[in-house]
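ligand=magnesium ion
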Amino acid sequence: MLDLTYTEPKPKIYAGAKGDWELVIGLEVHAQVASKSKLFSGASTQFGNEPNSNVSMVDAAMPGMLPVINEFCIEQAVRTGLGLKAQINLYSAFDRKNYFYPDLPQGYQISQLYHPIVGEGEILVDLEPGIARNVRVERIHLEQDAGKSVHDMDPNMSFVDLNRTGVALMEIVSMPDIRSPEEAAAYVTKLRQILRYLGTCDGNMQNGNMRADVNVSVCPAGQYEKFRATGDFSHLGTRCELKNMNSMRFIQMAIDFEAKRQIAILEDGGTITQETRLYDNEKNETRSMRSKEEAHDYRYFPDPDLLPLEIEQSWVDEIAAGLPELPDAKKARFITEFGVTEYDASVLTADLSDANYFEAVAQNRDGKQAANWVINELFGRLNKADLTINDSPISAEQLGGILDLIAKGDISGKIAKDLFEIVWTEGGNPAEIVESRGMKQVTDTGAIEAALDQIMTDNPDQVAKAQANPKLAGWFVGQVMKATGGKANPKAVNEIIAKKLIS
Ligand code: ADP
Ligand code: MG
């Protein structure tokens, strides 16, 4: 496999009044496990159902109900860990994180504090061709999601919807390796891409199926590198946590605001309070939500209803053997197999459906030309129509058919664009359309010569001008094209003009 090499991006520098500052960022991403049923009950995870219709006795925490682990959710967590090249822990265990909230009927969340199912891994966060950072993943643990309190339906009452209660989440915790707002967004983008390739989370951020808690601190420029070398980050600046971010754009804006806020406080001689803050995208500011609680505040203890989770290495190996080709590998393969640029390969592999489409078009054809058509014509047209590749009116087979006609010399690139438009709106077989509508390029030199002869006879002045100044021969190219309805092969036209007119 092609080994792409990268240099690390520079940290973003914030110039303060008294000196330069750098950012330190670590993310905790909650990704909903793609599974039909919940982590410890058989209730459905279907989004958008009638409130409180996806609730089993276990989710409602009825007395005497016992959780039963969903094997598929475990498999999904293991698959995710393998996809992030992480350590899979054959022994893990569930703990109760105790707190009261109306959308949490149990009065505790079942999570994995002491023994997570996945240990250290890494994510290659590629920012642009040649530039990427390997961000370390500290751990992934499984836990239950909570329900939702609804405060805006009635002036006097709040409601609760328990449909989400007990749905399986993977909490994916990064090390504080991220150094700019752009990198943080690129990290979430890459993680989402990998999860979607793996099929372990649908990555739908609008529905809240993937959301990030963003930890931000600042330190004087250059200080981070010293601590990075020691591996001990505990003496870096105090961090604030920006809760529940679910848009790449807002993640960047919130971090930027937070960095400037912290720098202003520190330069003013103040100290940063470790707290949880909320980003208000209308005002573009972060506001304090609550002071940051410590793990001991939750009185974690091993859940007595659940045995420790012990899995077999052979099962892990089986899951590993079934992993799909992941984005980095696919990108490298597209570069070597189809000769596309690193940039184009990144665009084409951003989404698995896009990548599959491109591959079907490029197979046994000119890869660069296929990339051009898929990225510039097809993606451009899909964007304009607000469609995804899955709803593309032109199939890979149809686009491939258009490229074949270009390759055979049947149509020019320009006619191909008209053909693309016809297939987009009317459908049909490209070769048949070209045949039935007489769109074939005229390569018959006799026909082109005859057209040129006629034009020369009709325009003796132009002939004289062009013979005095060969640069003016372009006029004849336009006329021949017009006379042949744009179907003359441009290469043949140029050759014939050069022969007849200039020599
Ligand atoms: P806690 O135990 O309070 O949850 P962790 O050490 O587990 O804290 O870290 C939680 C998240 O905060 C991780 O994603 C980590 O990378 C990030 N983090 C830790 N220290 C810092 C720091 N100084 N600045 C920014 N982020 C940090
Ligand atoms: Mg933690």
